[in-house]
Amino acid sequence: MKHGEREELQRQGAKAAARGDTPQANPLLADPNAPTATGEDLDQWVERVQAWQSGFDAQTRLAEAAGQAEDEPGKPEVDR
């Protein structure tokens, strides 16, 4: 994977999660981006898919943690 590509894919995955997309929104899973269409090495493609997914998962965990923190009893409400 090229320098910076992992971070970019993670950023894109996180943005997708923040938008409320599902994991199936990973653009690498689309037929035109699959190794059978691109000729990309399967191991490299899997690494890229996993990088996007790791960003998606990290953002999902952050959102869930933030939601749980907001639901804590006795915690004052904050205007947003």
Instruction: Output mean pLDDT.
Output: 90
The total strand number stands at 0
**Order of secondary-structure elements:** HHH
Give the termini distance in whole angstroms. 40 Å
Beta-strand content estimate: under 5%
Low-confidence sequence ranges? none
State the major sheet: none
What class do helices, strands and sheet pairing give? mainly alpha
Give me the Rg, rounded. 16 Å
How many H/I helices? 3
Helix content range of the residues, please?
A: 55-70%
Global geometry: elongated
Oligomer: single chain
Compact description:
The chain is mostly helical and 80 residues long.
Helix-strand layout with pairing:
Blueprint: H1 5-19, H2 35-38, H3 42-70
What does this molecule look like?
By secondary structure, this protein is mainly alpha-helical. The chain has a domain at 1-15 and 38-54. It has three helices and no strands. Helix 1 (5-19) packs across helix 3 (42-70). The chain is elongated and about 50 Å long.
